[in-house]
Design a protein that fits this description.
Elements lengths: L12 E4 L4 E8 L6 E8 L5 E3 L2 E3 L4 E2 L2 H15 L1 E4 L4 E4 L14 E5 L7 E8 L8 E3 L2 E3 L1 E4 L15
Antiparallel strand pairs: 1-2, 1-6, 2-3, 3-4, 3-5, 7-8, 9-10, 9-13, 10-11, 11-12
Length: 161
């Protein structure tokens, strides 16, 4: 290895200009710096992959703009936040919902504020998607309230008090 620009450090985003693969550099595979490990990879066919051994001479350090775009795309794809310590996109923890539910509780749910309330049975909290934190038997929902005391809202788009 004689090209000092190829001495990547852990966490660098690198890209192969020949096939447009972009990856997070994890570390060297060998002492001659000819191969390295990656953690997150993005390929020219618009798919993501993980943990690959790559040949150093094919890669250059990504620009700041390419790095930002790559991290944003990875966060969107994996539904989380990039952690520079682990070099992985980790799930975003969902804030504890206002109401507490147990499996098989009767609930009213809706996807957004404009949709109507429908009856459901609660299953569990969705820890991977903060936008739709309630999992019921037929799907995931953004809004969920107890059925008892709110049954007058069934079939309407009115907000609970």
């Amino acid at each position: 290895m004689r090209d000092w620009t190829k001495f990547f450090k852990r966490g660098d985003v690198v890209r192969n200009p020949h096939n447009e693969m972009i990856a997070v550099f994890d570390g060297w595979v060998n002492d001659d710096y000819t191969e390295f490990n990656t953690t997150i990879n993005y390929y020219d066919d618009h798919t993501f992959g993980e943990e690959e051994v790559c040949t150093t001479d094919c890669f250059v350090k990504a620009t700041d703009k390419q790095r930002v775009e790559f991290i944003e795309a990875a966060e969107k794809h994996y539904g989380g936040k990039y952690n520079p310590e682990t070099l992985q996109v980790e799930p975003v923890k969902v804030a504890e919902p206002k109401c507490s539910f147990k499996p098989f509780d009767k609930v009213l749910v809706r996807y957004n504020e404009d949709s109507v309330w429908r009856c459901e049975f609660f299953s569990n909290y969705n820890t991977f998607n903060k936008r739709y934190p309630y999992v019921c038997l037929s799907g995931v929902y953004k809004y969920c309230i107890h059925y008892d005391g709110n049954q007058h809202l069934l079939g309407t788009d009115k907000s609970p008090k």
